[in-house]
Design brief:
Number of strands: 4
Structural class: mainly beta
Oligomer: single chain
Radius of gyration: 10 Å
Strand order of the largest sheet: 1-2-3-4
Number of helices: 0
Strand content: over 45%
Length: 39
């Protein structure tokens, strides 16, 4: 899995890491919304 992968379908930028992932999406109705997930 690439460190940074663009997803045109969701119109967002997803950056994945070993400790978590950073998802920036503008398709959720909130431009510039930042969702931080830790798995």
């Amino acid at each position: 899995m690439p460190l940074a992968e663009r997803q045109p379908a969701s119109r967002g930028l997803r950056i994945g890491g070993r400790h978590g992932s950073l998802l920036v999406s503008v398709a959720s109705g909130r431009p510039g919304a930042i969702n931080i997930r830790f798995q």
